[in-house]
Design a protein that fits this description.
single chain; mainly alpha; two-stranded antiparallel ribbon; 12 helices; about 75% helix
Length: about 260
């Protein structure tokens, strides 16, 4: 009888853990976010306090949540081990990886934009509009920190991805956040102060936003891909300009 009760207890804990895991996978609970209070979680999930505590214990054992004394439980940094791996360090340390990452962004964000136009809800589009307007507002402040520009630009693209309702896409992009931010920062730092490129980026963001919110999947996919590929081409052109300048200067100074 005792072992039977223990088995039932474990089964209830696993069910609770799986329901909370689903909230994390679906992006309802995000990395670093505090879990609601036990009382609120019990009400939302329709479970007892003891079942909730057992479920949280299972999640802690799996490394999915962390609990800090006096602060409650938080969604753990799920991709931490991946981000600190030697491979991720090499990716982050090599400038050439920038262009490889932009190729990956074009593929992933093109598909996420298409799915967002097909699956996005009105709530998704309200959040997307907020991120879009925050990004535009920052663009009008010439003195704003480029890193803040990059963060808001990245938040807009992530909001498009979240509207795709494909958890694997969302978590793949989130696991590459630091690397993705490096491509966005490269764009902001090198292109935003160039009026022609800046206007081009603003038009591309507008096209992407409207194609997604007007539920035009093919146009949304094309807008996302064109935007990333345009950034890649512009950055390559800047790189080539700099190389030409270095060669010309070396000739002038008698080095070659």
């Amino acid at each position: 009888m005792i072992s039977e009760t223990a088995t039932e207890k474990r089964q209830v804990a696993d069910v609770v853990a799986e329901r909370i895991e689903r909230l994390i996978v679906d992006g309802v609970l995000k990395v670093g976010q505090a879990l609601p209070s036990e009382r609120r979680l019990c009400e939302k999930l329709g479970i007892s306090r003891s079942a909730m505590r057992e479920g949280l214990r299972v999640l802690r054992g799996r490394g999915i949540i962390e609990t800090a004394h006096g602060r409650g439980s938080f969604v753990a940094q799920l991709s931490g081990a991946q981000d600190t791996s030697p491979l991720m360090h090499l990716f982050n340390s090599q400038p050439r990886t920038l262009f490889d990452l932009l190729e990956v962004r074009a593929l992933l964000e093109g598909e996420s934009a298409r799915l967002a136009a097909l699956r996005g809800t009105e709530a998704d589009f309200i959040l997307l509009r907020r991120r879009y307007e925050e990004m535009l507002a920052a663009h009008t402040e010439e003195s704003a920190d480029p890193r803040e520009h990059a963060r808001l630009d990245h938040a807009f693209h992530l909001a498009v991805c979240e509207a795709s309702h494909n958890p694997v896409l969302v978590h793949t992009l989130q696991s590459l956040t630091d690397l993705m931010l490096s491509t966005v920062f490269a764009s902001v730092n090198n292109l935003y102060h160039r009026p022609l490129q800046k206007r081009q980026i603003d038009r591309q963001h507008s096209r992407l936003f409207h194609a997604v919110t007007e539920r035009l999947p093919d146009q949304a996919q094309r807008a996302a891909r064109d935007h990333i590929q345009s950034i890649r081409d512009n950055l390559k052109e800047i790189e080539q300009e700099e190389q030409r300048l270095v060669r010309a200067t070396m000739r002038l100074e008698g080095w070659v």
